[in-house]
Protein backbone atom coordinates (compact mmCIF):
# COMPACT_ATOMS: atom_id res chain seq x y z
CA UNK A 1 0.00 0.00 0.00
CA UNK A 2 1.62 3.30 -1.15
CA UNK A 3 1.46 6.65 0.67
CA UNK A 4 -1.62 7.91 -1.20
CA UNK A 5 -3.54 4.70 -0.55
CA UNK A 6 -2.54 4.79 3.12
CA UNK A 7 -3.68 8.41 3.43
CA UNK A 8 -7.02 7.60 1.77
CA UNK A 9 -7.50 4.58 4.04
CA UNK A 10 -6.88 6.60 7.22
CA UNK A 11 -9.20 9.32 5.96
CA UNK A 12 -11.99 6.77 5.44
CA UNK A 13 -11.31 5.34 8.89
CA UNK A 14 -11.63 8.78 10.49
CA UNK A 15 -14.83 9.48 8.55
CA UNK A 16 -16.34 6.16 9.62
CA UNK A 17 -15.40 6.80 13.25
CA UNK A 18 -16.94 10.28 13.11
CA UNK A 19 -20.19 8.85 11.76
CA UNK A 20 -20.22 6.13 14.41
CA UNK A 21 -19.56 8.71 17.14
CA UNK A 22 -22.40 10.92 15.91
CA UNK A 23 -24.81 7.99 15.88
CA UNK A 24 -23.75 6.94 19.38
CA UNK A 25 -24.40 10.51 20.60
CA UNK A 26 -27.90 10.68 19.12
CA UNK A 27 -29.56 9.46 22.37
CA UNK A 28 -27.80 12.30 24.22
CA UNK A 29 -29.11 14.91 21.78
CA UNK A 30 -32.63 13.48 21.87
CA UNK A 31 -32.76 13.29 25.65
CA UNK A 32 -31.42 16.86 25.97
CA UNK A 33 -34.09 18.04 23.54
CA UNK A 34 -36.70 16.19 25.60
CA UNK A 35 -35.55 18.00 28.75
CA UNK A 36 -35.96 21.43 27.13
CA UNK A 37 -39.32 20.40 25.68
CA UNK A 38 -40.72 19.23 29.03
CA UNK A 39 -39.17 21.81 31.38
CA UNK A 40 -41.26 24.76 32.57
CA UNK A 41 -40.40 27.29 35.31
CA UNK A 42 -43.37 26.15 37.38
CA UNK A 43 -42.46 22.46 37.24
CA UNK A 44 -42.53 21.00 40.79
CA UNK A 45 -39.55 18.86 41.90
CA UNK A 46 -40.18 15.19 41.20
CA UNK A 47 -38.40 11.91 40.52
CA UNK A 48 -39.46 12.17 36.87
CA UNK A 49 -38.00 15.67 36.42
CA UNK A 50 -34.76 14.52 38.08
CA UNK A 51 -34.57 11.54 35.72
CA UNK A 52 -35.23 13.63 32.62
CA UNK A 53 -32.61 16.20 33.68
CA UNK A 54 -29.88 13.66 34.42
CA UNK A 55 -30.58 11.31 31.49
CA UNK A 56 -28.43 13.15 28.88
CA UNK A 57 -25.34 13.06 31.10
CA UNK A 58 -25.84 9.39 32.01
CA UNK A 59 -26.16 8.58 28.31
CA UNK A 60 -22.89 10.44 27.68
CA UNK A 61 -21.25 8.35 30.40
CA UNK A 62 -22.45 5.18 28.65
CA UNK A 63 -21.03 6.37 25.31
CA UNK A 64 -17.61 7.21 26.80
CA UNK A 65 -17.53 3.87 28.62
CA UNK A 66 -18.36 1.98 25.43
CA UNK A 67 -15.66 3.81 23.45
CA UNK A 68 -12.88 3.98 26.03
CA UNK A 69 -13.54 0.95 28.20
CA UNK A 70 -12.56 0.88 31.85
CA UNK A 71 -9.70 3.38 31.58
CA UNK A 72 -12.15 6.30 31.91
CA UNK A 73 -14.12 4.94 34.88
CA UNK A 74 -12.06 6.87 37.44
CA UNK A 75 -11.99 9.88 35.13
CA UNK A 76 -14.54 11.32 32.76
CA UNK A 77 -17.07 8.48 33.12
CA UNK A 78 -17.00 8.82 36.90
CA UNK A 79 -17.27 12.59 36.57
CA UNK A 80 -20.33 12.26 34.36
CA UNK A 81 -21.99 9.88 36.81
CA UNK A 82 -21.39 12.23 39.75
CA UNK A 83 -22.65 15.10 37.59
CA UNK A 84 -25.88 13.18 37.04
CA UNK A 85 -26.18 12.76 40.83
CA UNK A 86 -25.69 16.51 41.15
CA UNK A 87 -28.38 17.12 38.52
CA UNK A 88 -30.85 15.06 40.52
CA UNK A 89 -30.01 16.83 43.79
CA UNK A 90 -30.39 20.31 42.31
CA UNK A 91 -33.97 19.56 41.34
CA UNK A 92 -34.79 19.98 45.05
CA UNK A 93 -33.53 23.35 46.41
CA UNK A 94 -32.99 21.90 49.90
CA UNK A 95 -30.42 19.48 48.41
CA UNK A 96 -28.30 22.25 46.88
CA UNK A 97 -25.23 21.53 49.04
CA UNK A 98 -25.45 17.82 48.24
CA UNK A 99 -25.61 18.63 44.53
CA UNK A 100 -22.67 20.99 44.77
CA UNK A 101 -20.70 18.27 46.58
CA UNK A 102 -21.46 15.78 43.79
CA UNK A 103 -20.29 18.26 41.16
CA UNK A 104 -17.15 18.96 43.20
CA UNK A 105 -16.29 15.25 43.03
CA UNK A 106 -16.99 15.35 39.28
CA UNK A 107 -14.50 18.20 38.81
CA UNK A 108 -11.94 16.30 40.84
CA UNK A 109 -12.37 13.23 38.63
CA UNK A 110 -12.13 15.35 35.48
CA UNK A 111 -8.90 16.86 36.85
CA UNK A 112 -7.47 13.39 37.48
CA UNK A 113 -8.36 12.42 33.92
CA UNK A 114 -6.71 15.53 32.44
CA UNK A 115 -3.50 14.62 34.29
CA UNK A 116 -3.37 11.16 32.71
CA UNK A 117 -0.78 10.27 30.09
CA UNK A 118 -3.30 10.11 27.23
CA UNK A 119 -3.69 13.91 27.31
CA UNK A 120 -0.85 15.75 25.60
CA UNK A 121 0.60 18.41 27.88
CA UNK A 122 1.06 21.96 26.62
CA UNK A 123 2.22 23.74 29.76
CA UNK A 124 5.32 25.54 28.53
CA UNK A 125 3.84 27.98 26.00
CA UNK A 126 3.29 31.65 26.83
CA UNK A 127 -0.34 31.30 25.75
CA UNK A 128 -0.92 28.52 28.29
CA UNK A 129 0.66 30.50 31.10
CA UNK A 130 -1.41 33.56 30.20
CA UNK A 131 -4.58 31.41 30.23
CA UNK A 132 -3.63 29.99 33.66
CA UNK A 133 -3.31 33.52 35.00
CA UNK A 134 -6.65 34.59 33.50
CA UNK A 135 -8.49 31.56 34.90
CA UNK A 136 -6.94 32.01 38.34
CA UNK A 137 -7.84 35.70 38.42
CA UNK A 138 -11.38 35.14 37.13
CA UNK A 139 -12.04 32.31 39.62
CA UNK A 140 -10.72 34.25 42.60
CA UNK A 141 -12.30 37.50 41.50
CA UNK A 142 -15.71 35.94 40.95
CA UNK A 143 -15.71 34.30 44.38
CA UNK A 144 -14.78 37.65 45.93
CA UNK A 145 -17.68 39.21 44.04
CA UNK A 146 -20.10 36.53 45.31
CA UNK A 147 -18.87 36.62 48.90
CA UNK A 148 -21.24 39.38 50.18
CA UNK A 149 -24.23 37.56 48.67
CA UNK A 150 -23.17 34.27 50.26
CA UNK A 151 -23.00 36.00 53.62
CA UNK A 152 -26.68 36.95 53.33
CA UNK A 153 -27.76 33.31 53.12
CA UNK A 154 -29.24 31.85 56.37
CA UNK A 155 -26.84 28.92 56.01
CA UNK A 156 -23.81 31.13 55.25
CA UNK A 157 -21.52 29.48 57.82
CA UNK A 158 -21.58 26.28 55.78
CA UNK A 159 -22.34 27.68 52.33
CA UNK A 160 -19.53 30.27 52.13
CA UNK A 161 -16.57 27.86 52.68
CA UNK A 162 -18.32 25.12 50.64
CA UNK A 163 -18.64 27.45 47.64
CA UNK A 164 -14.99 28.47 48.14
CA UNK A 165 -13.84 24.85 47.94
CA UNK A 166 -16.03 24.30 44.90
CA UNK A 167 -14.49 27.33 43.17
CA UNK A 168 -11.00 25.97 43.85
CA UNK A 169 -11.91 22.61 42.28
CA UNK A 170 -13.63 23.98 39.17
CA UNK A 171 -10.79 26.47 38.63
CA UNK A 172 -8.27 23.62 39.01
CA UNK A 173 -10.23 21.63 36.45
CA UNK A 174 -10.09 24.57 34.03
CA UNK A 175 -6.35 25.04 34.59
CA UNK A 176 -5.62 21.37 33.93
CA UNK A 177 -7.83 21.42 30.83
CA UNK A 178 -5.73 24.32 29.57
CA UNK A 179 -2.61 22.16 30.07
CA UNK A 180 -3.88 19.71 27.48
CA UNK A 181 -3.71 20.37 23.76
CA UNK A 182 -7.30 19.14 23.37
CA UNK A 183 -9.54 21.96 22.14
CA UNK A 184 -12.79 20.15 23.00
CA UNK A 185 -11.61 19.54 26.57
CA UNK A 186 -10.64 23.18 27.08
CA UNK A 187 -13.85 24.56 25.58
CA UNK A 188 -15.90 22.11 27.64
CA UNK A 189 -14.23 23.20 30.86
CA UNK A 190 -14.73 26.88 30.06
CA UNK A 191 -18.38 26.25 29.17
CA UNK A 192 -18.83 24.49 32.53
CA UNK A 193 -17.45 27.55 34.32
CA UNK A 194 -19.81 29.85 32.39
CA UNK A 195 -22.78 27.61 33.25
CA UNK A 196 -21.92 27.60 36.96
CA UNK A 197 -21.41 31.37 36.94
CA UNK A 198 -24.85 31.90 35.41
CA UNK A 199 -26.40 29.49 37.93
CA UNK A 200 -24.75 31.18 40.91
CA UNK A 201 -26.05 34.59 39.83
CA UNK A 202 -29.58 33.26 40.12
CA UNK A 203 -29.26 30.90 43.10
CA UNK A 204 -27.54 33.50 45.31
CA UNK A 205 -29.91 36.26 44.15
CA UNK A 206 -27.21 38.45 42.64
CA UNK A 207 -29.61 39.36 39.83
CA UNK A 208 -33.36 39.27 39.47
CA UNK A 209 -34.81 36.03 38.05
CA UNK A 210 -34.10 35.92 34.32
CA UNK A 211 -36.73 34.80 31.85
CA UNK A 212 -34.43 32.39 30.04
CA UNK A 213 -31.91 31.92 32.84
CA UNK A 214 -32.40 28.17 33.19
CA UNK A 215 -32.13 27.69 29.43
CA UNK A 216 -28.75 29.48 29.32
CA UNK A 217 -27.48 27.46 32.31
CA UNK A 218 -28.54 24.10 30.89
CA UNK A 219 -27.44 24.75 27.29
CA UNK A 220 -23.93 25.69 28.43
CA UNK A 221 -23.95 22.79 30.92
CA UNK A 222 -24.94 20.11 28.42
CA UNK A 223 -22.49 21.58 25.90
CA UNK A 224 -19.73 21.44 28.51
CA UNK A 225 -20.38 17.78 29.31
CA UNK A 226 -20.57 16.89 25.62
CA UNK A 227 -17.25 18.58 24.82
CA UNK A 228 -15.49 17.02 27.83
CA UNK A 229 -16.79 13.57 26.84
CA UNK A 230 -15.78 13.99 23.18
CA UNK A 231 -12.39 15.32 24.24
CA UNK A 232 -11.76 12.23 26.36
CA UNK A 233 -12.71 9.90 23.51
CA UNK A 234 -10.41 11.83 21.16
CA UNK A 235 -7.55 11.60 23.66
CA UNK A 236 -7.91 7.82 23.91
CA UNK A 237 -8.19 7.47 20.13
CA UNK A 238 -5.07 9.58 19.57
CA UNK A 239 -3.17 7.49 22.13
CA UNK A 240 -4.24 4.25 20.42
CA UNK A 241 -3.21 5.56 17.00
CA UNK A 242 0.17 6.67 18.36
CA UNK A 243 0.72 3.21 19.88
CA UNK A 244 -0.09 1.55 16.55
CA UNK A 245 2.32 3.92 14.76
CA UNK A 246 5.11 3.06 17.23
CA UNK A 247 4.55 -0.68 16.77
CA UNK A 248 4.62 -0.31 12.98
From TrEMBL:
GO terms for molecular function: alkenylglycerophosphocholine hydrolase activity. It is found in: Membrane. Its EC number is 3.3.2.2. Its main location: membrane. The chain crosses the membrane at residues 20-40, 99-117, 129-146, 158-176. It is an enzyme of class 3 (hydrolase). It is a multi-pass membrane protein. It catalyses: a 1-O-(1Z-alkenyl)-sn-glycero-3-phosphoethanolamine + H2O = a 2,3-saturated aldehyde + sn-glycero-3-phosphoethanolamine; a 1-O-(1Z-alkenyl)-sn-glycero-3-phosphocholine + H2O = a 2,3-saturated aldehyde + sn-glycerol 3-phosphocholine. The keyword Cell inner membrane does not apply. Keywords: Membrane, Transmembrane, Transmembrane helix. Pfam families: YhhN (PF07947). Belongs to the TMEM86 family. This is lysoplasmalogenase.
